[in-house]
Structures are given as structure tokens and as C-alpha cells.
Design goal:
Radius of gyration: 30 Å
Mean pLDDT: 89
Number of strands: 22
Distance between the termini: 86 Å
Number of domains: 6
Shape: globular
CATH topology of the largest domain: D-amino Acid Aminotransferase, Chain A, domain 1
Helix content: 25-40%
Bound molecules: 2-(butylsulfanyl)adenosine
């Protein structure tokens, strides 16, 4: 075998490995590292090598599949017509080639093109029968996808019942589900606040949201959808454009950019126009799509194994700049996570000056192979946040050293740790590392937590530096005299803070839990916890096995809560907060009539119910003089069991000989049957 052959074989293998890795990053991890264009280039190179050297072909090569977004937890359905992808082009010349191929294949100049936006979201197939939405299925592997009807129903711009008339009894419509920029910014701001990983772009946010198990959360996030393809045995018109205009009348969102084009000049103008105008759109787009209008001509042109011959995508060029790295700084967050940040020579990109860009974690610094003072490519493609996409190694200074990730916390000097399987390094000195402490103080006083007016980022730092507030409980020891002893504090600002502290004593228990900065306990989890446990003592003493029985609490959160309460400093702080008057339990409904039918009885609720909600049962226990507890112990008098009671709880109740009652029996006990 010749050397050139083995070089080819190596290259093929390398491309396959790389493409498989990027496919995984994109579809499974929702964290792409390279642009679509780079991905397409590699795919094209591999396709052409496999064509030239069929002896190296492999049925498992990434060229033979179209990725998959199938995830566990959803039922699946086969697509009636497979969901294909589109060929990509990057220049007007390539689009011109496409038009030429059509002309040749049809043997005629007589065809129209429909120009459309290429929406950068996640594709969806909707099935309508007799004007009603029956099913929504994701693209999956193109043949089968996940049934996400419940989540899709929450999208307000999708018609559940069609308007007007003239729709086929059975049809499918395809489109793109998107998270508009505004909703994306809001979601990421919340996630940044909770130190949850950010979505890199609205596409990942949309597909992540669509796959959530909790459709209420899906509804809250504000997805939107645009439609661009109708399929049926019985279509209303014989052109794509007319079908789309019909769909619009029935209530579907069809982009106003959808336009009939007659020749390459029209196409050129359309590209020129949308290249800039798309920046004003409320949703992310990554290009344009050109489709042959006549359905007869589409039928004539047919398909390749992966995409239609009658349509092509034109991808917009991401805006990119080259600038010099000044240095990499390492920042410590509230949870101790270390983030490397590239500090850049200021450069203008898409209308804003970029000086800093997050490098996210060590793996990314390594993959990019960044050396000191390198020239870096900064891009703002689908991402709002500037992203370092590469290094111009030709411009590397001689002798420049690779950027080293710090081994110790840049602030407190503690040796960093990394959780196995996670990319982030963190400073384990939770209770001694200043930015972590100040971060927790800032979080505690925040608007959605204790809402202590008058203490912001700067004041929190100042109070910490003065040694006055070195932990959350110290806030309640602040006095007028102490505040006035600080520079820049006048009567009014001191008064404002003291009033804020006083008001914070009425903040609900749910928000108190959120305010504590328990790792992985964000706003939603805090609410769930507060409602499930009722008071802090129950929560503090709950074993992991009981915590995981609470709705939406998985093992990672349960472990984290357990660990938090195992630290005596945390318990001590909570006692001080309690003594200061901070709410440590859910309020007992003051207005409802009370009885003592359950006086002295401790009842544990488990499972799901039909007649009343869990929360209502909890309230009924308390209203009748009983105590609701989250975990089963010798002190438990009854277990109120619904459907799907956790096996661990059942086992425990049985072994302790505690009577298990169902909802009817319980309601009879309090004369509500
Ligand atoms: S048509 C058979 N039109 O791009 C042709 N697709 O790369 C089906 N997309 O999976 C697709 N905007 O998720 C079409 N105006 C548009 C589109 C569009 C976005 C997405 C879609 C598809 C992918 C193909």
C-alpha cells in the first residue's frame, strides 16, 4: 500500500473522530465548539474523500447519518415523510450554481424561487386533523422523533384549532421553534444569577426547553414558532408560496420575509437586503433558504439521500474580528467556580466594543491552544456573547508560552478542585474565600431573595471589607451607629438599610431558602422544597432518601442540601437568622377555620392524589391541628399515601408498623368525606 493511501486513511479517520465529537457536542451536550461552517467544511472534505476512496467507506461514518436529538423520557413517533436537511451554500456564486442545476434538470428557464428566512431554532413537525393539532414531533434522527405535544401546546403562536377554512383534513406542517432574543436574554440572566450554565445561543435554549419534562416551565420561557413547509396528499395549492399564504390565513406564523423571486438578480438583492435587515428581527436566523415554488417542479427535481434538490440554504457569514490577547484573568463566582476570561485589546464587532470574552473552562483554553499574547478570532454569530473561535497561530510571538490554567484560587490561594466528569475547576474554600462570601451576601440581599433595599454589590463589598458583615447572619446585627461609622454613609442611607432589614423579616420562607445559596437550589427548587417540607427544621433533618422523593429534587440536589446542613457554620447562621426574626416556616393560613381533630398527630404525605393537591392536604392537616412532616420516623402516626408512593417510604412505614391511609380514609378522619 502506498504512503499516500495511509495518509488518506489517517485523514479520514481523523475527520470521522472530529465530526463524531462535534455531533455529540451539538446534539447531546448542546454545547457546540465550532461554527456550522467549519463543521460543514469538514463534512464536505470527508464526503469527497469517501467518494474518491470507496475502499475506506464505513456504514457508521458520520456522513451516513443526520444526528439525533432523541432523548429519554418522551414517547417517539415515526415521521410520515422523513425530515431531511438542506444543502448549504456560502456565496451568491454557489446559489447561482444551484439555479443552474435546476435549469438544466428542468430543461427550462421557467421557474420561480421562494426566498425565506432560515430560522436558527429547532425543527418541529405538527400533525393536524380536522383543523385540530393532534401531535408535535421533533426531528430526532430524521426518521423518528420525540413526541413533545404537551410542550408545543404551550407555545402561544401555534394554533391549536385552525382559523378560516380550506385546510386538508389531514396534513403536516413543519417549522422552527425559537426562543426570541428577548426571552433568551431574560432566561440567561436568570441562569447567570443562579450560576447555572448559560445557553450559548437561542437554538440550544429552544431545543433544551422543548425537551423539558415540565411544560409549565416551558410555557414560562416564551417559545415562538415560524412555519415553512406543508405536506399532505391534499394540499390547497400547487405552489409552495400559495400553500404558505394559506397556512398564514389558518393562523400559522409564516415569516413576512417569504418572497417570490424570479431570477438571480432578485436572489442577489434578497441576500443583500436580509444580510443586514435580519439583525433587526426578534429571533435568531442563520441564513436564507431558496426553494423552487412549483410543487410539480419539486417532484421532478426530487431528492438526494439527505436533502431535496429543489431547495438550498444560504448561510450568513458570522461577524468576526482579530485582536490581541492581553492576558487571561481567572474569576471566582459565588459558588466558587473559576472562569477564565480573555482580556483583549478593544475591538469593534457588530456595533459594540469587545474587551473581554469568557473562555468558560480549562478544556476550552486547551482546545483552542491559546498562547500568551496570541491574536484571537472573536465572533458574534448566533451568539450574543462574543466568543473566541480560534487563534491565528501564524502571528504567534516567538517563544510565547501556552496559557496555563491556575492551580490555586487567585483570591484566597486554596488549591482548586474539579468534580469528576465536569469541566469546571472550583475553589473549595467555600466559607473562607472572600469573593464567595461576598457573592453569597449579595445574593442574600438581592431583590428576589430577602430584598434588602440599600445593600447592593458595592455596599456588600464595603461591609465585608470593614469586617462588619462577614456572613449573612451579620446583616441582622447592623445598627445605625455601626453603619454611620462607615465612610459615605449618611443618616438616610443607614435608615434605608435598617428599614430593608426590618422588612426582610416578612419575606416568605420560600425566598429565605433561595437566599441561603445552597448549591443547586435555585428559585424554583427553593419553592418546591419550602412547600414540601413546611419548615426549616424538617428540611435540616431530612435524609437524602426522603429529599429525592420531593417533586423535581434529584440525587444531585438532595446531596447538596444534605451537605449544606451538615456544616455547623450553616446551622449556626440559620439559628441566628431565626433569632433575628427571619421566617423559617410556611405561613399557617390564619383565616381558615381550625379544628383539633388531628391534634398531636404527625402525618407524612407521600405520592400523588386525585381529590386534593399535596399542598392542600398539608394545609388540611395543619388546619385540623396535626403536624405534617416530610420524613417517616418512629414519631409518625400516619402515612397519607397517594399513587406512586416512593418504595423507600413504603418500606420504612411498613417496617415501623405505621398505618398507611389513603385520601378517602384521611378525609373521613376530618369529617370531609
Ligand atoms: S425547509 C425538505 N425552510 O434548517 C426541506 N428549513 O438544514 C425541509 N430551517 O431541519 C427544510 N428555516 O430545521 C426549511 N425556511 C426554512 C427553514 C428551515 C430553518 C431548518 C430546519 C431544517 C434545517 C435544514
Amino acid at each position: 500500500m502506498s504512503t499516500s493511501h495511509s495518509i488518506v486513511e489517517d485523514r479520514i479517520k481523523q475527520l470521522r473522530d472530529e465530526l463524531n465529537r462535534h455531533n455529540h457536542n451539538y446534539y447531546v451536550l448542546n454545547a457546540p465548539e465550532i461554527s456550522d461552517r467549519e463543521f460543514d467544511m469538514m463534512m464536505k472534505e470527508l464526503e469527497s474523500l469517501e467518494l474518491q476512496y470507496p475502499e475506506w467507506d464505513d456504514p457508521l461514518s458520520p456522513t451516513h447519518r443526520v444526528g439525533s436529538d432523541i432523548s429519554k423520557g418522551f414517547g417517539q413517533a415515526a415521521h410520515i415523510y422523513p425530515m431531511l436537511s438542506l444543502g448549504n451554500t456560502y456565496s451568491i456564486e454557489e446559489v447561482d450554481d444551484f439555479m443552474r442545476r435546476i435549469r438544466t434538470a428542468l430543461g427550462s428557464d421557467d421557474f420561480e424561487i421562494v426566498g425565506e428566512m432560515k430560522f436558527d431554532g429547532t425543527s418541529i413537525s405538527l400533525i393536524y386533523e380536522h383543523g385540530r393539532l393532534i401531535r408535535a414531533v421533533t426531528r430526532g434522527d430524521g426518521e423518528r422523533g420525540d413526541i413533545v405535544t404537551d410542550n408545543v401546546r404551550t407555545i402561544r403562536s401555534i394554533p391549536l384549532q385552525l382559523q378560516g377554512s380550506g385546510w386538508p383534513d389531514h396534513f403536516e406542517i413543519r417549522g422552527e421553534i425559537l426562543l426570541p432574543w428577548k426571552a433568551f436574554d431574560k432566561l440567561n440572566a436568570e441562569r447567570a444569577y443562579n450560576e447555572e450554565p448559560l445557553f450559548a445561543n437561542p437554538r440550544n435554549a429552544a431545543s433544551g426547553t422543548l425537551k423539558m419534562q415540565n411544560s409549565a416551565e416551558v410555557a414560562r420561557r416564551g417559545l415562538d414558532a415560524y412555519f415553512y413547509y406543508m405536506l399532505s396528499e391534499d394540499l390547497p395549492a400547487d405552489t409552495h408560496y400559495a400553500n404558505m399564504m394559506e397556512a398564514r390565513k389558518w393562523g400559522f406564523k409564516v415569516s413576512s420575509a417569504t418572497t417570490l423571486l424570479h431570477n438571480i438578480d432578485d436572489v442577489d438583492k434578497y441576500i443583500q437586503y436580509w444580510d443586514t435587515a435580519r439583525k433587526e428581527l426578534p429571533v435568531a436566523t442563520d441564513g436564507l433558504v431558496f426553494k423552487v415554488n412549483s410543487l410539480w417542479q419539486q417532484l421532478n427535481l426530487g431528492y438526494t439521500s439527505k436533502s431535496p434538490r429543489w431547495a438550498i440554504a444560504y448561510k450568513f457569514q458570522a461577524e468576526r474580528a482579530l485582536t490581541r490577547l492581553q492576558h487571561v484573568s481567572f474569576e471566582v463566582g459565588r459558588m466558587g467556580i473559576i472562569t477564565p476570561v480573555a482580556n483583549l485589546e478593544p475591538v469593534l464587532l457588530s456595533g459594540t466594543i469587545v474587551k473581554r470574552a469568557s473562555l468558560h473552562n480549562e478544556d476550552i483554553v486547551r482546545t483552542l491552544d491559546i498562547h500568551e499574547h496570541d491574536m484571537l478570532y472573536v465572533e458574534k454569530g448566533g451568539e450574543i456573547i462574543p466568543k473566541i473561535t480560534g487563534v491565528e497561530s501564524a502571528d504567534r510571538e516567538p517563544g510565547a508560552k501556552p496559557v496555563q490554567f491556575v492551580t490555586h484560587c487567585p483570591v484566597c490561594g486554596t488549591e482548586l478542585r474539579r468534580i469528576e466528569g465536569e469541566a469546571a475547576w472550583f475553589c473549595p474554600n467555600k466559607y473562607g474565600c472572600p469573593p464567595q462570601i461576598v457573592g453569597r451576601i449579595e445574593h442574600f440581599v438581592g431583590r428576589r431573595m430577602m430584598n434588602i433595599d440599600g445593600i447592593g454589590e458595592e455596599t456588600a463589598q464595603m461591609l465585608y471589607d470593614a469586617g462588619m458583615v462577614t456572613g449573612i447572619a451579620d446583616i441582622y446585627d447592623l445598627t445605625r451607629e455601626r453603619l454611620l461609622s462607615l465612610d459615605r454613609f449618611g443618616e438616610r442611607s443607614a435608615e434605608r438599610i435598617l428599614q430593608g432589614i426590618e422588612d426582610s423579616k416578612n419575606v416568605t420562607f420560600e425566598r429565605v431558602i433561595y437566599a441561603l445559596s445552597i448549591p443547586y437550589v435555585g428559585e424554583t427548587v427553593a419553592k418546591k422544597l419550602a412547600r414540601a417540607v413546611g419548615d426549616i427544621d424538617t428540611l435540616m433533618n431530612m435524609p437524602v432518601s426522603d429529599l429525592i422523593e420531593i417533586e423535581d429534587i434529584g440525587p444531585r440536589i438532595a446531596e447538596s442540601i444534605h451537605e449544606y446542613f451538615a456544616v455547623s457554620a450553616n446551622i449556626h447562621n440559620i439559628e441566628r437568622l431565626r433569632d433575628a426574626g427571619v421566617q423559617m416556616s410556611m405561613p399557617v393560613e390564619a383565616t381558615v377555620e381550625k379544628t383539633d381533630l388531628l391534634s398531636g398527630k404527625t402525618i407524612v404525605i407521600s405520592g400523588t392524589f386525585t381529590k386534593h393537591s399535596r399542598d392542600e392536604y398539608k394545609e388540611l392537616i395543619e388546619r385540623n391541628g396535626g403536624k405534617n412532616s416530610g420524613s417517616i420516623s418512629k414519631k409518625t402516626d400516619y402515612v397519607l399515601a397517594g399513587d406512586n408512593m416512593g418504595p423507600a417510604k413504603l418500606e420504612k412505614a411498613k417496617s415501623l408498623g405505621i398505618p398507611i391511609i389513603d385520601e378517602s380514609q384521611f378525609l373521613a378522619m376530618i369529617n370531609m368525606d
